[in-house]
Design a protein that fits this description.
alpha/beta, 4-stranded mixed beta sheet, 12 helices
Length: 269
């Protein structure tokens, strides 16, 4: 308990003393009110922005000023119209900070309103009253639409093995944490994609005999394409290579997920 209290005191102290030249007021009369936020959003998005409860960026920006350092990451799990990103970008523009933001939104307006607002405040809004917003607040962001959770159990239907494409997507994402593009697949070479660190290969067929007989050998390793020149991450049923030969070929080996073999046992039974 004492350690937890000390950590909390340190966080509170950090927030209160981040800018020692002036104490933060507990009464915020110099930020816009909620009723002004709709006008702010309309100025950025036009009359098509049908959002009922936006918050003023000046209010969220005040929270960012008090609660963050200049290189912190700000998370908004209910992003709404994108006010938090707007506020973070505005504060970065003002103090030269490099704060990042992560916005999460499940509404169907996530791209058309939330992300579009961020795009516009980055590029600039000619009709905005704020001079900095007119010029654009600069910065970059990535819009990602999250699909259904990818669990191997959902790919294994009864005793049915997943297709090459389905398993490729699963192992690539779980190993790299990066987006998978099925268009990159070359089944002839086993190549399934490139990540920041690896060229990734998969030796697999949804066939019992193939899985029993296939192993990564030295000849197979030497026959892998040069690709981008990165290390190779190779998935296969097993390997006949020791650590020395794997390192010579710049290969990190991963065995196929154990659930595949559980499915095979169920199929045999």
């Amino acid at each position: 308990m004492d350690q937890a209290r000390e950590r909390m005191d340190a966080l509170l102290h950090r927030g209160c003393t981040q800018r020692p030249h002036r104490p933060w007021s507990t009464l915020w009369t110099d930020v816009d009110q909620n009723r002004q936020a709709q006008a702010e959003l309309t100025a950025i998005m036009g009359t098509d922005a049908q959002f009922q409860t936006p918050k003023p960026s000046s209010l969220v920006r005040r929270i960012v000023q008090i609660a963050t350092e200049e290189d912190d990451i700000v998370l908004d799990a209910f992003a709404g119209s994108g006010t938090t990103a707007h506020a973070v970008l505005a504060e970065n523009d003002a103090d030269g900070g490099s704060r990042s933001f992560v916005l999460v939104e499940s509404g169907d307006f996530a791209d058309a309103t939330t992300a579009e607002r961020v795009r516009r405040v980055i590029k600039g809004v000619a009709k905005a009253k704020d001079e900095a917003l007119q010029k654009g607040l600069a910065g970059t962001f990535t819009f990602v639409e999250v699909g259904n959770p990818m669990h191997l159990e959902s790919l294994l239907k009864g005793s049915k093995l997943p297709s090459f494409e389905d398993l490729a997507g699963y192992v690539f994402y779980t190993a790299t944490g990066e987006d998978f593009d099925a268009r990159a697949i070359n089944k002839k070479t086993g190549f399934i994609g490139t990540s920041a660190r690896y060229d990734v290969y998969l030796y697999y067929e949804p066939d019992l005999d193939y899985l029993k007989k296939t192993a990564l050998t030295l000849d197979m390793a030497r026959g892998l394409p040069k690709g981008s020149g990165k290390r190779r991450l190779v998935f296969a049923p097993t390997k006949y290579l020791d650590a020395i030969h794997l390192e010579e070929q710049r290969i990190d080996f991963c065995q196929l997920p154990f659930e595949i073999y559980k499915a095979l046992k169920a199929k045999k039974a």
